[in-house]
Amino acid sequence: MGSVTSFFGGLCRKQVKIEEERLFRANDRPYNLSYQYANNAIRTSKYNVFTFLPLNLFEQFRRLANAYFMFLMVLQLIPQISSLSWFTTAVPLILVLSITAVKDASDDINRHTSDKQVNNRMVNVLIDGELKKEKWMNVQVGDIIKLENNQFVTADLMLLSSSEPLNLVYVETAELDGETNLKVKQALTVTGDLGDSTDLLAHFNGEVRCEPPNNRLDKFKGTLSLDGQTYSLDNDKVLLRGCTLRNTEWCFGLVIFGGPDTKLMQNSGKTTFKRTSIDHLMNVLVLCIFGFLASMCAILAIGSAIWEGVGAGLTSFLSFWSYVIILNTVVPISLYVSVEIIRLGNSFYIDWDRKMYYPKNDTPAHARTTTLNEELGQIKYIFSDKTGTLTQNIMAFNKCTINGKAYGELFDFSGQRVEITEKTERLDFSWNQLADPKFIFHDHSLLETVKEGNPEAQDFFRLLALCHTVMPEEKNEGELYYQAQSPDEGALVTAARNFGFVFRSRTPESITAMEMGKQVTYELLAVLDFNNVRKRMSVIVRSPEGKLTLYCKGADTIIYERLHPSCNKLKEVTTRHLNEYAGDGLRTLVLAYKDLDEDYMDKWRKRHHEASTAMDGREEMLDELYEEIEKDLQLLGATAVEDKLQDGVPQTIEQLAKADIKIWVLTGDKQETAENIGYSCNMLREEMKEIFVVAANTPEGVKEELVNARKKMCPESADEPSVISSRAGLFWLQKIERVEDEKVEGEYGLVINGHSLAFALEKDLHLELLRTACMCQTVICCRVTPLQKAQVVQLVKKYKQAITLAIGDGANDVSMIKAAHIGVGISGQEGMQAVLSSDYSFAQFRYLQRLLLVHGRWSYLRMCKFLQYFFYKNFTFTFVHFWYAFFCGFSAQTVYDEWFITLYNLVYTSLPVLGMSLFDQDVNDRWSSQYPQLYTPGQLNLYFSKKMFVRCMLHSCYSSLILFFIPWAAMYDTVRDDGKDIADYQSFALLAQTCLLIVMSVQLCLDTFYWTAVNQFFVWGSLASYFAITLTMYSNGMFLIFTSYFPFIGTARNSLTQPNVWLTIFLTSLLCILPVVAYRFIVLQLRPTVNDKVRHKLRKEALPAPAPRRPPTRRISTRRSGYAFSHAQGYGDLVTSRRFLLRLPLKSRPALFSQTDSPLAQNQPQHYRTIAEGQEDAQSP
């Protein structure tokens, strides 16, 4: 589709020059317009009024069958060769084209409406020194615009100034990455001084030189030239379209990229016309059928020439085209109409499924496309985002260990661990007026320990209240809200708040806290900031009593190296607890402190000041000072925070793995965070033989690590990959390459970093990456860019020839969603960008199991059964014509009544096969989920393939021989009971078509697994309608009224009253059906499939009950999570800046974590029904 659009686009406009660098001036529209940069209007629609008809028809005639029917219609306009009227093909063809066109037009009108709604939003633009309301679509590059709190960002902007201190703004990026925690952006000081003065802003004439439009959400390079000075611009100075301004009264920005050039739209990826593998196969099969049809017609034309004798060239030529028209029923147009109806019906089942409805957000599942349903039953690889897809991005303080004692678990009188549920009694924090009402904790012993005045416990929570970069917000007295840079920090400070150590406010030099009801102000002497190398953060404070203390929190391995030897025993106990927490998939941090000497501190501060003002080697000098003071620490304990998974994620992943679906997680998060979630989800398991980590920084290093991993998994694997080349597609023009799977004993996992992945995706290493990754059960890619996500999907698609599915919830997942065969968007979050680009959407990851194992499997099964049966009934119908040609002198006479030919596919056989294709199911939904192994035949394409098609043709050939020669032999020289002759053409035609219809009906009954009242009605109703219509059409009245149209007068009365006719029908049906029954019986006994075994089990057993909830088994892990904050460097400098908090009086702001009534938002325990596991020995009958 894209190539067609670009072709038409090329006719209508000049060739667009590739932009290498963007240059523009602020407040200078004429200068900027000379570069012809795109304005801010977006267009996601495919057509307009003028291009709709040609583009849509072109797209529809790319389907080979439509082109074929158009050709047939032209043939039928030639009276010398056509024995059928032209409208018999024209009417159904026009109907099919019209229905498809209306559907496409409706979809495109919705896209136009959506585009119009976005383009007509209003924003304040600075024009001629005044702020004027303008539509988004009229905003140009170089314009200065004003945004206000809770407004969407109009275009990609360079931040100029804001209402906040230090020119900060807070933005929510849920539309881009699915994350709801706020991000901080900061303007340059030189532009921040412009403030909100329209005069100063109107005279701002800075010149920006930056990178061209691209899809890198996390990077930006550019410079601002102003008054002869050049200032560097990076991603922290840029607000991206799709973000929402939060907790910021106003800000001004300069438009850098507009509309299609914005990073949001650049990440939308190319909209490709997705078609299923069955669609592609059908195109190839239809081509083969055309070839077969041509050969049949050629044989009959040669027969006609032999029959006519000398000079029969023209007759033979005309005979060829006559038979093309008569035998065209091998590919009836009703096939494509029926396929669309079946797909539409199965899409409605997804939309109507109450088990995929999420009541909290009132979000049902939605099939946004109707053309891909059966492919849901063939998925081999799933590519998933992490944040917002597997997790809720909600952190909960779950457990902790203080001075060697673990808190957070409940035990009964016998010492057995008790599972915490929604009914478990919560701690009552009503004694603390500043407590957060949403905070939940269950272990009373921790609160009692704190209230008793235990010094270690109080120091523990004091550390959590002081050592952080959280910003407090107090709207009214006692109503505290925290602006946390990461949800982890918010969870820890909130825990300290509820246990009596409330972080109240901060200034650049102090931190004020309420400690067990008493207000205490600490002098803040230094913040030793976090970075990715240090993996820890410290603060140095002086208490009101003058005591100097360093508080430190960080990754266990980092803190342990800096502990005083006296902590060794406590370290062993804490390590044991950390292993347990890591086994539960929790994110852990170790806490420690150190009392400092006043004299040493004075000297250290002087050296610190010298280092922080040094021009050369500043970072190295500061690191040395930090290392010096952060040693001989005293261990306090550790925290365990749960990155809350969505309900049912581990069970879903477990069931999908049993269905032999491989799951790859592609996330932008850090390695430690991604590994934690991997363990929490049961994707990474302790029992795996090995989990390989690829983190090299050079191509050679990456290759070595990949090869070593592969050799460990399969020592005998060849050095070079086994790539099999073959031809596929229409006319076999497409060259495909496939990398063979390699056998591996045991399960392995692979974790690869973003920089290593960048090397691995290069031309000479990509096959090595693919080989190694596909040998692993689980693959996790960290720090991945949106482009790399799409590249990984494309790599697997290209070389594995397997069906892929991508699932995500943010704009950073859009390119991956569009690259995969099927894209799924998680809806119900704030970010809806992924949903708008997806094929299917629902609110929770766990619904993916039902979408694939139930709806996907049923859709694939139904479509395959439909195609098998449809080709069987039409080939049988057509082959009878072929055999009859040898008995009618190759005259192109039809064997059936013309009305039967017209109504065969339209009335007599259409509804029964649709009934089977819409309602059939081999086992119900509960059994489908219970036995994921039922899914594997779809992955292997066992139910419909070229092999199955050939088998179907042979079956049709056999049936047609029976259906023609048995009635022919039975009618030959036959007389009625009264001695009158009935061996005429009309009686034979009636007998042949009656036998055909009854055999087709019995065959359908054999193919149907699941009977409903609708199926019964369609089957019996079709047979009844056949006899009713036949008796009516062959009646005297119809002959008298329409003599030329109904010539078969009295034939039905003459034939259907004879016992030998009914005996012939019975004998013919028996000979057609008996071999099918016998074959199926033998196969069932000798080689039963998984489906056969489960259906046999189903007959013997009752419906499987939902498994009772059981507490998760404790898993002790030797692997511990690191400093797992989604934290960024630089916030220590921010909170200690002397300009910070020099601002207007407090104004009302929306809360960072707004309260809702949902259990998830309130961090309540989650419940889900586990999926029962069948006994291994119970899986076979």
UniProtKB/TrEMBL annotation:
Residues annotated as transmembrane: 84-102, 284-307, 319-339, 866-887, 899-919, 948-970, 990-1011, 1023-1049, 1061-1083
Domain of life: Eukaryota
Biased composition regions of type Polar residues, renumbered to the chain: 1154-1167
One Gene Ontology cellular component: trans-Golgi network
UniProt-annotated location(s): Endomembrane system; Membrane
One Pfam family this sequence matches: PhoLip_ATPase_N
Name of the molecule in the record: Phospholipid-transporting ATPase
